[in-house]
Prior knowledge:
This protein is of the alpha+beta class. About 25% of the residues lie in helices and about 35% in strands. It has helices at about 15-25, 70-85, 120, 140-150, 210-220, 245-255, 260-265, 275-279; strands spanning about 5-10, 30-35, 40-45, 45-50, 65-70, 85-95, 100-105, 110-115, 125-130, 155-160, 175-180, 185-190, 200-210, 225, 230-235, 240-245. An eight-stranded mixed β-sheet has the order 2-3-4-1-13-16-15-14, sandwiched between helices. Strands 6-7-8-5-9-12-11-10 form an eight-stranded mixed β-sheet, with helices on one face. Strand 7 (about 100-105) and strand 8 (about 110-115) form a beta hairpin. Helix 6 packs across helix 7. The longest helix has 12 residues, at about 70-85.
Amino acid sequence: MKNAIYPCIWFDGQAKDAAEYYCSVFENSGIIDDTPMVVTFELDGVKFMGLNGGPTFKPNPAISFYVVLDKEEQVQKAWERLSDGGMVLMALDKYDWSEKYGWVQDRFGVSWQISLGDSRAVGQRFVPLLMYCGEQQGRAAEALQYYTNVFNPAKTESIVRYEPGQVTLDATVVHARFRLNNRVFMAMDSAVPQPFTFNEGVSLVIDCDTQEEIDYYWERLTDGGSESQCGWLKDRFGVSWQVVPTVLAGLLQDPAKSARVMQAFMQMKKFNIEQLVNA
């Protein structure tokens, strides 16, 4: 996929444990790559990265994963496993939008919205859902317009808005579904005050084949946002992104080069492919 986008979850040394756990919860899942720093895994064809980043950041419900399961027994199994040692945010029950739905934060702090439905209608079984709350309260509609202008192809597939007077907070979007680079995402404004907002606990990775692609995404996403180190940035809404060259993984797997490559990219904010290759 051209410029694939996938989530990265920050763990305190538990990335492999978490990846194995999630792969046991969901069917058609497995670990793709396992290194001391990064564990890459797929859940029913959707790529995830687990980062052993230490205790600095923790995931929170500002970015959760909406999971559409086709059978009630699958919903029940996932709910029981993910709620074991975790915290229920919304009870598993019947709601207006689903015959069976629940929101849970698992034992690793990662949030999941489990819903009975037709995954084919959504187009992706595991969907990152961005909730605009805290300092970003009420900005979901603005973010939709922004992201669909940055990425190509991109489009808003559906949007449901709050009725006038339905909530007292600054909230417009009940639920929206959109695509960026052919990946499905969801967004919403929180209907109640939240004590958290976006952080590095869950970031979004963009794979780039060329320096031109890196430069483009870096320039567009830092507009109104801020640069960080090693390909990390925050956009104007506080969402963390990693703009990463696809060549990096191969360079780090070469024992003769990996130490020099790592030393080079640790000095970078935006990645420079030529400097990495020359290292």
